[in-house]
Amino acid sequence: MGAESESGSGVQSVDPDDVDAADILGSAIERREDPALLTGDAEYTDDIELPGMVHMTIKRSRHAHARIENIDTSEAEAMDGVIEVFTAADIEAPGNLPTGWLLDSLEQVDHPILAEDRVRYQGDALAVVVAEERYIAHDATDRIDVDYDRLGAVTEPSEALADDAPAVHDDASGNVAFDWDIGDAEKTDAAFDDADHVVDLDLENQLLIPNAMEPRAAVAEYNPSNDELAVHMTSQNPHLHRLLMSGVIDHPEHKLQVRAPDVGGGFGSKIHHYADEALVALAAKRHERPVKWTATRTETYLTDAQGRGHDTHAEMALSDDGDILGFRVDTAANLGAYLSTFAPAVPTYLYGTLLSGQYDIPAIYCSVTGAFTNVPPVDAYRGAGRPEASFVVERMIHRAAKEVGMDPAEFRRRNFVEEFPYQTQVAVEYDSGDYEKTLDRALDLLDYDELRERQEAARAEGKYVGVGLSAYIEACGLAPSELAGELGAQAGLWESGLVRFHPSGKVTAYCGTSGHGQGHDTTYAQIVANELGVDYEDVEVVEGDTDEIPQGMGTYGSRSAAVGGSALVKSSQKLVEKAKRIAAHQLEAAPEDIEFENGDFHVAGAPDRSMHIAEIATQAYLAHDMPDDMEPGLEATSFYDPDNFVFPFGLHAAVVEVDPDTGEIDIERYVAVDDVGNQINPKIVEGQIHGGVAQGIGQALYEGAEYDDNGQLVTGSMQDYTVPKAEHIPSMETDSTCTPSPVNPLGVKGVGEAGTIAAPQAVVNAVCDALDVDQIGMPMKAERVWRAANAATDGGEH
Amino acid sequence: MTRDISLTVNGTEHELSVEPRALLISVLRDELDYTGPNVGCESSMCGACTVHLDGEAVKSCTVLAVQADGCDVTTVEGLATDGEFHPIQQGFQEEHGLQCGYCTPGMMMTATELLDRNPDPSEEEIREALEGNLCRCTGYQNIVRAVENAAEKMQQEPAVADGGGD
Amino acid sequence: MFPDEFEYERPETVDEAVDLLVDHPEAEILAGGHSLLPTMKSGLASPDLLVDIGHIDAMQGIDHADGTVSVGALTNYATVDDSPVMRENVTVFAETAHAVGDVQVRNRGTVGGNLAHADPASDLPAAALAADATMVLQGPDGERRVDADDFFLGMYATDVAEDELLTRIEFPARPEATGAYAKKPSPSSGYAMVGVAVSMTVDAGRVEDVGVAANGIMDHGVRLDPVEDALAGTNPDGETVATAATNAANDLDEMMMMDDLQASAEFRAQLLETYAERAITDAATGTGVVAAGPS
């Protein structure tokens, strides 16, 4: 398992039929998900059509901050085809959306599913229309008349924390949601006192809009005779949605089914519990008819939880020799109008704990103030806290290397962590790593020394070529649950996996994660087939349905392989153990004399006395000849709770040429060397890196939610917010090293977010390098770069 | 007030009565149950709804069903013939050109038109041709490879190329 | 996403269409729909009546006779882009049509719709100016011809009256001319932050005839007279072209320049010079390449 063949040419897929059973784990087999997706047979939520189904729309606030004087629904209600229009006043107990992560200083605020007398962001839900037809529901929504008394709005965290800022919540003084810190302030102050050099930067990590291609949607159906409610929805974590929704709408959890059909991407935006899906469920119960709601793209721009949104001041203390002595970070984090599901964790435990990067930094202190603002709730978006951390670290490293006059690659090498496990100054302990290996491989691919020479030569010709490095680290598979609980999580972070042999010897594996494009059906089948020694084709995988899978926590934070995959390994191992005892019994040998290899149990030293695990499955269900005290059947469930996070790492590098006349940036090369531990399916790993890098380049060059002074989103469509196109993204050269994680039985580390975490600062560092400037803000739109280039040539930037 | 129209979708003729404001994508998905093409935006940017209209790739969210009266429509459901994947479908499968799959039907419909017009496109030409189709998962690299893969297959087996698409 | 209700008429002839417009001056004309339908879906437009002219055969196609190329207003961008007649005789217009939107848009959007919509950031107005196009309008009193220079009046404003229809666009055939369009697209929408169209005839090393016009910079497509003047009669080598391009914004009032989320007026003026230089260079070398930066 592991490294790719030739860099740039990419991993070659293989047909699973051409792979020996013993080699299935680690093979780049084609995905079994694809045939349905390639033919239109996939079933996304909006594809669901149920008898008697009606359509729902949501009237949303047009203003970012206002008191609601009146909502007049009469004209809408009078329309033909309109079944009902309801507001907060019409429902007995409008639920409140809960926060799933608490901090000591957290100011909890109410988040009703329908606004009662005040709206706090453009898009806040005000009223619900239920109608016979989709078009009519939208017509009716436009005819609801709302009287607003507008209030002042604030959208930037640093503005929100200023003395004269409008109050988003009356109870949250100064718009402070929390104050949080990590590290040792005194030790860090002392490090700065002893420093030969101190560098500092003001860094903004702009708000991003996730833009999964499939808008959020839900279809709910209710059976009044048994009180069963089923919600089919765009979810990354159906069990979590079931638990939260059961509280929000006060429906018993055991009579609520949440099912994620095919889901068209999430990137975090489909983790959270929004008002909308709860309203669909309520509407289905009110009318006892199936109800469908599908967000328009405009609604996703206005209401999907956004990501990032940090204003940071960072300082680094350095010695003349180029050692990092201390690191101090102060961040104002945008939380939006309400606390979304995991919002408090993102700019704290998923951020501050990663500020040591790949470096041995003896003193770190980070303080974060969470700010309420009049933008949609801000929560996990691909990377969630870790991109923000890596951005701050790697931008500062670039700046620091320049300050002490060292090549940025050598500065990194000098400060790398070398011994593992490594205890950082910000709580976490790195499991394993070899940072020089990814650096060296990347420098090799870049032909770094030659590149630096070419850069010099280009500059002499008036061309601006730059190289940017990003040595990133991320933490995946947040664990163990006990630690998460100590840090404020209101949920465990284990995963469940059930592996069931059928009497015929076929296998179904159930996992509580919920893929939405990652290819879990394929990778989990690879894992289980390998553990059990059965054919890959004999393993079916089931995910994303609370009625089928015992329990689960879902897919986010690059956790599925590390935690869900490991749960399936544990269950498979339990089956092998039980099967071994049955084999011993039927082969008339002692269990300790039975050996297991590629699905066969045989007596040690007598290979002809053997039984295949599939035969044993049949015997386990026949139950005619079982060991004493053994129950029939062959299935096992595990709840796997890892001992620690896993820490993937790598080195990404961008080579750019900047046109100072137009501010245009040409990414000539993008090199990614990642170490995600063992790879179950290298082709899927490659795809995750590609997609992650594209989103990271999107942040560096194009993307950003922008609001006007009234809190109105001005980048509220794909015409105005750049989702990168094919021609915006360079062809990437990918390679990998393999440092297996000791934490989990698969030795995997997680890959879903690596590219997004690594890429932004690689590109920003490259552009800064090209123009020889210290700082350019993201997104590096042409005009911004043009201005920076001109300031630099005028000598203004230094 | 509705209007009677006829649409031939993947070779099957449908007579139906539609509101003038009904978008072609709405009629395909909600009336005729061709749910392969998807809706990803309302600003004619994402291309997830791309189908062929009389053989040309169009965004079916930006065509009224009444404008398509009398036309031949091909959706992703019409790409495979007799259970055999079109080369573009094979290319996407072999090169991991899709992850969540939501953009894929539209992406493939645009790609097949490109290959009709330009059987051996360069990487740059492929990227340019796909500028009206957004993908958030793949970073496009394996989509480019998928189109190259399909081009190669279609050049080797020109007979296959005539099988689907339009 | 969902347009409001409207009445729908589908005339088969220009006269029928004009009659409808006379009776319903508030009606919107539906051609390819690629400007109108997005505004209806976003709720910005809610017409009571749509006159779908898409079935008027007389407004389709490209004719070349007597030194004039006539393009039916309903001809889509892809047809213009692919037309050998257009590539040969009105190169700048074919090059520019290739730069509009994306493949799907080019398959549906019409040249008449584009010109009559007069979006300041759309591509064809500059090409119409550079190619010395004439707009042919039909109203209740018959046909009327308007030079491109008099056609574009402002943002979304043209000389077309409420009861008139743009039926075709006529161009002088210039087989000897080269043409190019250089555009800095908005990375999100693909519309022009700045786009410069150039049609140029060079004879014996001297510029005999040249049209240079720009989109995106002002509230409507504008001819860049100072650039044309600076090029006329010169040998268009690199230095001459670069110098001529520095005149691009000379006649333009910076206070009136487009200034929005995509780019400030100051930056647009800068881009205008660079893209003018690129377009003229491409035309001068006969490459006709549509240059577009990645960001």
Automatic annotation (TrEMBL), chain A:
Domain (Aldehyde oxidase/xanthine dehydrogenase a/b hammerhead): residue spans on this chain = 39-152
Region Disordered, residue ranges: 1-20
Q: Which domain of life is it from?
A: Archaea
Q: What is this protein called?
A: Xanthine dehydrogenase family protein molybdopterin-binding subunit
Quote the InterPro entries the UniProt record gives. Answer: Ald_Oxase/Xan_DH_a/b, Ald_Oxase/Xan_DH_a/b_sf, Ald_Oxase/xanthine_DH-like, AldOxase/xan_DH_MoCoBD1, AldOxase/xan_DH_MoCoBD2, AldOxase/xan_DH_Mopterin-bd_sf
Q: Could you tell me where the Polar residues compositional bias lies?
A: 1-12
Q: Which SUPFAM superfamilies match?
A: CO dehydrogenase molybdoprotein N-domain-like, Molybdenum cofactor-binding domain
Q: Which SMART domains match?
A: Ald_Xan_dh_C
Which keywords does UniProt give here? Molybdenum, Oxidoreductase
Pfam families xref list: Ald_Xan_dh_C (PF01315), MoCoBD_1 (PF02738), MoCoBD_2 (PF20256)
Q: Which GO terms describe its molecular function?
A: oxidoreductase activity
UniProtKB/TrEMBL annotation, chain B:
| Xref: Gene3D superfamilies | 3.10.20.30, [2Fe-2S]-binding domain
Segments forming a coiled coil: none
Molecular function terms from GO: 2 iron, 2 sulfur cluster binding; metal ion binding; oxidoreductase activity
Entry annotated with the keyword Mitochondrion: no
Q: Which UniProt keywords apply?
A: 2Fe-2S, Iron, Iron-sulfur, Metal-binding, Oxidoreductase
Which superkingdom? Archaea
The record's section on Pfam families has: Fer2, Fer2_2
Q: Where is the 2Fe-2S ferredoxin-type domain?
A: 3-79
Q: What is this protein called?
A: (2Fe-2S)-binding protein
- Record organism: Haloplanus ruber
TrEMBL record, chain C:
- Which SUPFAM superfamilies does the entry mention? CO dehydrogenase flavoprotein C-terminal domain-like, FAD-binding/transporter-associated domain-like
SMART domains associated with the record: CO_deh_flav_C
Question: Which keywords, in A-to-Z order, does the entry hold?
Answer: FAD, Flavoprotein, Oxidoreductase
One example GO MF annotation: oxidoreductase activity
User: Where does the FAD-binding PCMH-type domain start and stop, copy by copy?
Assistant: 1-176
Q: By its UniProt entry, which PANTHER family does this protein fall under?
A: XANTHINE DEHYDROGENASE SUBUNIT C-RELATED (PTHR42659)
Q: What is this protein called?
A: FAD binding domain-containing protein
Highest lineage ranks of the organism? Answer: Archaea, Methanobacteriati, Methanobacteriota, Stenosarchaea group, Halobacteria
